[in-house]
Write a structure and sequence with these properties.
This protein has six helices and 34 strands. By secondary structure, the protein is mainly beta. The N and C termini lie far apart (64 Å).
């Protein structure tokens, strides 16, 4: 009997080890606060094509986009494989991904995306405001088994696309403002004292044409750097995404998404310079990434209104071992999340120098629901504003335009609830928890457990329209008398006491 038990135990061990080796990502799913659907590896046929062997020239001046796209299309039709981008600087227009293709950038390789904006304009009819959509620098839709891997760089040359706010850069980075003005462009008022510069009507010697009738319309046409939609089995691994015209990585409505060990960089002042914005993803893993950007860092999206609901919830997303430096928010939800958020875990991440650590933002017309959201075992440092910020009246606005008011306001309300923040430590922040619900739509049923923040310069807990919040074993080191600022809220329990009656 003992011998049988030993053999059975060994057999179980072999099965367990085999299952771990079959899925190299299984190790990330141990000791989580909830059970989650695990991502599965993405594999490709063992066939390679090096673009240098089919006529591409790495001089940074010759557009090799047509060669890359032809190789991708042909290899996909043959069953797929890996397209090698070797070391060197390769000028290219937009690249269209195909199923069963791994676009692999070797170390020292740079895909430098052309500043010729006409290359990106889609051929579809104009939108109501006269603008057209632009393809992303790398894009694809309705694909299976697709990857961008390697140690190379994708450079979107966003400086030639993005507006620049004078009030952001004039004091801290004046050379940026001067460089922009030297390129020509168009100035429009931002406020009574400052302007916004648009890369519209640039100096003729730059050879960069306008693609719209005015600066504001062209601003709406900025492309993302990488945008994969309505696809299955997507892997982004190892690469550096640099200076996107708009958002850097935008996978949308993807099943089985893996983002592993990538680096994302753009200037802190880059307008709408989000690092990554996964939207309506079913089963995803975001690990070992390093980010410094001009807007939100790791931002969960869930669609606006009924379209978001139809796309399904953002579900089973594990975000782990990531570092976010400069960004508006380290981990973010919104502003649109009508499809809902469920089974999302943020674990073992570092947010150092972000404006906000955990930033949840939405508004009526684009809100949704939450279930089983856990932010656990994270570290925050040098937070400029709030460690945790939850807002139900966020105004979505573009550069130089008024707040968006096109959403249907009598439906799709943000329901911020069923969220747990646990084991969060750090130092230096303006506020620790800042919750701004709306009248009749309180933020509710949130757990804050074992949170210690030193060096709080303003307030420990700010609440407006919140209820059923529980704080246990929390220590927010602020000045005496600045522990709480609570309005229009009830059922608040802080370390076993009611701060409204103490």
């Amino acid at each position: 009997m003992k011998r049988f038990s030993l053999l059975f135990a060994c057999a179980l061990c072999i099965v367990h080890c085999a299952s771990l080796s079959a899925n190299p990502y299984a190790e990330y799913y141990t000791n989580l606060p909830i059970e989650m659907q695990q991502v599965q590896p993405v594999a490709f046929r063992n066939v390679e094509v090096n673009i240098a062997n089919v006529g591409a020239v790495a001089d940074g001046k010759t557009d090799v986009g047509n060669i890359i796209n032809k190789v991708i299309k042909k290899l996909s039709k043959q069953g797929g494989g890996t397209v090698i981008i070797p070391a060197g600087t390769w000028l290219t227009g937009p690249i269209r991904m195909q199923s069963n293709i791994n676009l692999h950038l070797q170390e020292g390789a740079t895909l430098l995306f052309s500043t010729n904006k006409e290359l990106y304009v889609q051929k579809s009819d104009s939108l109501r405001d006269g603008s057209k959509k632009c393809n992303a620098c790398v894009y694809g839709s309705k694909l299976e088994n697709v990857a961008i891997t390697g140690n190379g760089t994708l450079n979107g040359q966003g400086f030639y696309w993005r507006p620049i706010k004078e009030k952001k850069v004039k004091k801290t980075d004046p050379q940026v403002w001067e460089e922009a003005l030297a390129m020509g462009g168009t100035l429009r008022p931002d406020d009574k004292k400052h302007s916004i510069w648009y890369p519209y009507n640039l100096n003729k010697e730059l050879g960069i044409p306008n693609i719209a009738s005015d600066a504001i319309t062209q601003e709406k046409m900025r492309p993302h750097l990488v945008n994969i939609t309505d696809s299955k089995n997507v892997l982004i691994q190892g690469v550096t995404l640099l200076n996107s015209p708009k958002f850097h990585l935008v996978p949308t409505r993807v099943q089985n998404l893996i983002i592993d060990g990538i680096t994302i960089r753009c200037p802190w002042w880059a307008q709408n310079g989000d690092a990554m914005d996964p939207g309506n993803i079913q089963t995803g893993l975001i690990v070992n990434c390093n980010i410094s950007c001009g807007d939100d860092g790791i931002c969960m999206k869930g669609g606006v209104g009924q379209k978001g609901v139809d796309a399904g919830p953002q579900s089973d997303i594990l975000i782990m071992n990531d570092t976010v430096y400069r960004a508006h928010g380290g981990f973010v939800i919104g502003s649109e999340f009508s499809g809902g958020m469920q089974r999302i875990v943020v674990r073992n991440c570092l947010f150092d120098g972000t404006d906000i650590g955990f930033r949840f933002k939405s508004a009526p017309g684009r809100g949704g629901w939450c279930k089983d959201l856990y932010c656990v075992d994270n570290v925050v440092r040098n937070i400029r504003e709030d460690v945790i910020h939850i807002e139900s009246g966020y105004a979505d606005r573009g550069a130089g335009v008024s707040a968006t008011d096109k959403d249907k306001k009598d439906a799709f309300f943000p329901d911020w609830s069923n969220i747990t923040f646990r084991n969060i430590t750090g130092a230096v922040a303006e506020n620790v928890v800042n919750i701004q619900g709306l009248k009749g739509m309180p933020v509710h049923d949130i757990i804050f457990d074992n949170i210690t923040i030193y060096g709080v310069t303003d307030t420990g807990v700010k609440l407006n329209y919140a209820e059923k919040l529980t704080f246990t074993n929390c220590s927010f080191r602020t000045r005496p008398g600045n522990e709480f600022d609570i309005n229009h809220s009830r059922a608040i329990l802080f370390n076993g006491k009611d701060p409204l009656t103490e």
